[in-house]
Recover the amino acids of this structure.
């Protein structure tokens, strides 16, 4: 597997590869399902001849997915799906030890971010693996690559799936893409327990504030919001939820949280974590009401959940970096508002993203979905597909097995009972 060949790349420093390799190995020990898939891929080579362009957060977990795809016979090209989420040592290791074409540097500016996307597309991939749909969007706009060569793709996250469904609706999507996010073994666990833990981890690593006794305002009660709220409560915070959806708001109330509009929550919150996938969820009129010292963060895919231009305007440009990933804005009346990680994914920018154990399932879905698309390419249309249910259940079964958890099976009698209509009271 290890090789000295150096592929085309743009990474921070290849000298970091040794550290990256150790951390990739550490993550691997927490990814038993992906490891099993890798072993099978290594013998069956289901991805032979496929050139994959992957636009993902370049983390130790992603590295394990990339190594699995390469074991399956794919040629792998990687770029970042967020300018701040790259782990530079991992990027270096993928180039130096696995001869992959990697284009990603933590802290790259927007121009470089898109240049890197174009670089992997210019490798003329036949398959795309995306997280947020920026890669697919650039390819479909004809800004790079050759879309006619692409057989299919996968998409990792809620925001990306929303964008793809819009492309499908407007009949501009040109090839089939599997919405990995829709698998139960993805969003039930990654979005909820992964974001729950990693978003809190990001806020804590960036600020080192005590969560206990604070008021944490969580924007959105989707799978990510549910996880963040539960973990904030676990730390001893008083948690307020803001929502637009009545069903989710009701669920939050019955889960024991206070629910109110952001305009009210803005006055009470000490720490804000937005996970809606929406736009200007924390807006100018909210920032205007916030307490001195309020901490603003985002764990949604894009950095437009907090109205940062308004924050800049309200402070008249009076801003300073007070810690890594913490920028303090002083408003004209002297109140200080702290913005974490430039409003970008706080869990990946200020911490390491979701732990490997949960990414194990997400990335097992990615690897198996890629295999599924390639096997079924002739039958598939340019649409967004869900992960097949039997694949999803198999991943859950493998994860349970790896965790040493046994479950019951229906007896013959129970199967008959479950499918009959005759028996009643
Ligand atoms: N998204 C959230 N956490 C992640 C991780 N650790 N690796 C890749 N993508 C992620």
């Amino acid at each position: 597997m290890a090789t000295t060949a150096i592929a085309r790349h743009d990474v921070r420093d290849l000298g970091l590869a040794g550290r990256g390799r150790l951390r990739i190995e550490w993550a691997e020990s927490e990814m038993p399902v992906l490891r099993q898939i890798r072993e099978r891929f290594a013998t069956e080579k289901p991805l032979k001849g496929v050139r994959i362009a992957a636009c993902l957060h370049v983390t130790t977990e992603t590295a394990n997915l990339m190594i699995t795809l390469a074991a399956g016979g794919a040629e792998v090209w990687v770029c970042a799906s967020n300018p701040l989420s790259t782990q530079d040592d991992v990027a270096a290791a993928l180039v130096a030890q696995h001869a992959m074409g990697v284009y990603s540097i933590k802290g790259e500016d927007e121009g470089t971010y898109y240049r890197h996307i174009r670089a992997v597309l210019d490798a003329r991939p036949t398959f795309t693996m995306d997280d947020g749909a920026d890669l697919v969007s650039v390819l479909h706009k004809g800004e790079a690559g050759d879309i006619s060569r692409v057989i299919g793709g996968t998409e990792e996250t809620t925001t990306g799936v929303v964008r793809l469904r819009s492309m499908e609706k407007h009949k501009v999507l040109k090839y089939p893409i599997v919405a990995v996010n829709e698998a139960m073994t993805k969003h039930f666990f990654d979005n909820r327990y992964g974001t729950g833990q990693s978003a809190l981890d990001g806020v804590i690593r960036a600020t080192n504030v005590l969560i206990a006794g604070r008021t944490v305002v969580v924007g959105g009660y989707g799978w990510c919001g549910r996880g963040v709220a539960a973990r904030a409560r676990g730390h001893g915070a008083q948690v307020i939820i803001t929502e637009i959806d009545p069903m989710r708001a009701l669920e939050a109330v019955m889960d024991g949280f206070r629910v109110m509009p952001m305009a009210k929550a803005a006055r009470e919150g000490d720490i804000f974590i937005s996970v809606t996938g929406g736009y200007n969820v924390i807006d100018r009129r909210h920032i205007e009401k916030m307490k001195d010292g309020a901490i603003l963060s985002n764990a949604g895919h894009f950095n437009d959940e907090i109205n940062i231009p308004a924050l800049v305007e309200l402070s008249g440009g009076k801003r300073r970096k007070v810690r890594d990933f913490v920028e303090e804005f002083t408003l004209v009346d002297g109140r200080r508002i702290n913005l974490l990680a430039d409003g970008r994914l706080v869990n990946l920018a200020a911490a390491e993203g979701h732990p490997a154990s949960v990414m194990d399932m997400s990335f097992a879905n990615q690897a198996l979905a890629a295999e599924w698309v390639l096997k079924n390419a002739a039958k598939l249309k340019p649409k967004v597909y869900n992960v097949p249910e039997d694949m999803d259940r198999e991943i859950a079964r493998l994860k349970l097995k790896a965790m040493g958890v046994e479950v019951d099976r229906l007896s013959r009698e129970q199967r008959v009972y479950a499918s009959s209509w005759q028996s009643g009271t």
In short: The longest strand covers residues 51-56. The pocket of adenine is lined by residues 56-57, 59, 61-62, 194, 198, 348, 353-354, 359 (CB under 6 Å). The radius of gyration is 22 Å. The domain at 3-186+355-403 is CATH 3.40.50.1480 (Rossmann fold).
